[in-house]
Specification:
Metal_Hydrolase; alpha/beta; disordered C terminus; uronate isomerase, domain 2, chain A; isomerase; about 250 residues; TIM Barrel
Length: about 250
């Protein structure tokens, strides 16, 4: 019996599977004519025209072989690399998403490279530091302690370490923070309450949903305040499932 996948769509091997690059490209080419009215149709052809040697013909299963050859010839010429794409696109700033424990070593190397004028800046994303109930939380706290050079044996020390990394990101040029929240929550709590909650987690105990909300609320509020105190940033960006909310953006 024919599967719905092969009858109505594209087999997974041509999407994320082990099909060859050409076969995946060809499967996409067969799909493109069905996308008229969808931005993907226009983006596909704009990219082929602007970046791959001025490909003018529409991409479909008949034109795919010739377009594949033309584009790969351009890519293999040695005259067109990732940086060329970035410069050609008129990009001035790229903000990567980075964990507070990241070393940012490559940001430093790019900054020192005088042949590349596009700014590549880190974005401070401490999601793992908020998920107090998630597996691996304490392993992450250990990494944060190593990165900051601060022994984290209390909630105050955790906040100090997070602030330390904000300062480090700022020195590298970071002016943006990025938070992914499953839902928007707020539960009033004092620092003393949250400190006790953190100690529970530190001791391997499970914290309740209400305690988790208090921990996240207080920690996010702290991070927002720390960021805003920087006279030239960062800007807090909170990513929600359906929207982006930007707070206190002070980018220099």
């Amino acid at each position: 019996m024919e599967s719905n996948e092969s009858k109505w769509g594209v087999e997974e091997k041509y999407v994320t599977g082990d099909a060859s690059d050409y076969d995946k490209f060809f499967a996409w080419a067969k799909t493109v004519p069905q996308l008229i009215g969808n931005p993907l149709y226009h983006w596909t052809h704009l990219e082929l025209k602007r970046y791959f040697g001025g490909v003018e013909e529409p991409l479909n299963e008949n034109t795919a072989p010739a377009i594949w050859e033309k584009v790969n010839k351009r890519l293999n010429s040695g005259e067109w690399n990732v940086r060329d794409f970035i410069v050609k696109s008129g990009v001035e700033v790229i903000c990567t998403t980075d964990d507070p424990v990241d070393s940012l070593e490559y940001h430093g190397k790019i900054k020192a490279d005088t042949d590349f004028n596009v700014k590549v800046l880190p974005s401070y994303r401490p999601d793992k530091g908020l998920e107090i109930n998630r597996e691996g939380f304490m392993d992450w706290v250990t990494k944060l302690a190593e990165a900051s050079g601060i022994k984290i044996d209390s909630y105050h020390a955790l906040l100090e370490a997070l602030a330390n990394r904000i300062d480090f990101f700022h020195e590298i040029g970071g002016r943006v923070s990025d938070h992914a929240l499953d839902n928007m929550m707020y539960e009033e709590a004092t620092e003393a309450e949250v400190a006790e909650i953190f100690i529970k987690a530190l001791n391997g105990e499970k914290v309740s949903l209400e305690e988790e909300k208090k921990y996240k609320s207080f920690t996010l509020t702290f991070l927002g305040g720390k960021n805003i105190m920087k006279k030239d940033g960062p800007c807090n960006i909170i990513l929600m499932p359906t929207e982006i909310i930007i707070h206190e953006c002070l980018i220099s």
